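Per your request, structure below.
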């Protein structure tokens, strides 16, 4: 298939996750494309909204679901605004998947610490679903997730379901009436966990300031730099390495990433996040 030509897909379902955040379930119109589509958790696709352009979005569905692709999108501009107006039955284009993904095979038999902030949990969701589907292949698995307010928590239903298989811990920056959980930035949850740095991998995605302090905290906890992994998908624009928008330290996030470990990017981490 020509990677520059998008494949048509139908918006099969739309689910509201949080204010201005929705998950779109897409089904390829061509059955052969649908049957052949495979991706690694952490990869992304280019989504075309005809008449408005295209933009990269991390795949947020489980890699075990072959019948559809899900993208969790925040409404932030013209293209995403048009997508939100389309709703079910709309036709979009998909190119990809592109980029690398979380090195889940390397993490087999190890403990996994998953850290997400806001909509940054979207690129982590496929990895979580994969780990749960292959639960006996991993050690202790802990998810630390933070959002601005209880309303901004994404995947509320999934978080409850995941809690049956992995340790799920939540916090919000600002609570409110009715909130009985933790309050504070996601790094406060790191103070509650104990890890064995020799057998733990950490994967994370979220706002740049979150990843900066989480990475620093993990390094202080003794986690080797090659075991601290994060997705820099927020920096991507064209997704193909043409525009140069995501070039940092001589690397293209879309072509060389979007998943990196701290050892790879330590020298230009400040520019990246």
């Amino acid at each position: 298939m020509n990677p520059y030509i998008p494949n048509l897909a139908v918006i099969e379902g739309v689910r509201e996750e949080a204010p201005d955040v929705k998950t779109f379930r897409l089904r390829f119109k061509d059955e052969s494309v649908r049957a052949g589509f495979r991706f690694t958790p952490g990869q992304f696709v280019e989504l075309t909204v005809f008449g408005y352009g295209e933009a990269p979005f991390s795949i947020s569905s489980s890699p075990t679901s072959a019948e559809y692709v899900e993208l969790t999108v925040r409404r932030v501009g013209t293209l995403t605004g048009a997508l939100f107006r389309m709703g079910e039955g709309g036709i979009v284009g998909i190119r990809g998947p592109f980029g690398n993904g979380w090195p889940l095979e390397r993490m087999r038999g190890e403990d996994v610490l998953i850290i997400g902030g806001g909509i940054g949990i979207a690129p982590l969701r496929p990895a979580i679903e994969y780990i749960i589907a292959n639960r006996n292949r991993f050690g202790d698995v802990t998810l630390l997730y933070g959002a601005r307010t209880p309303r901004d928590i994404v995947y509320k239903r999934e978080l409850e379901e995941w809690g049956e298989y992995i340790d799920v811990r939540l916090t919000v920056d600002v609570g409110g009436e009715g909130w009985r959980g933790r309050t504070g930035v996601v790094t406060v949850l790191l103070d509650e966990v104990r890890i064995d740095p020799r057998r733990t991998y950490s994967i994370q995605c979220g706002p740049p300031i979150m990843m900066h302090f989480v990475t620093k905290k993990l390094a202080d906890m003794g986690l080797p730099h090659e075991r601290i992994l994060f997705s820099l998908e927020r920096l991507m624009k064209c997704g193909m390495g043409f525009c140069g928008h995501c070039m940092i330290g001589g690397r293209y996030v879309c072509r060389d990433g979007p998943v990196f470990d701290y050892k790879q990017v330590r020298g230009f981490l400040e520019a990246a996040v």
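Residues 149 and 172 are 5 Å apart (CA to CA).

Regards,
D.
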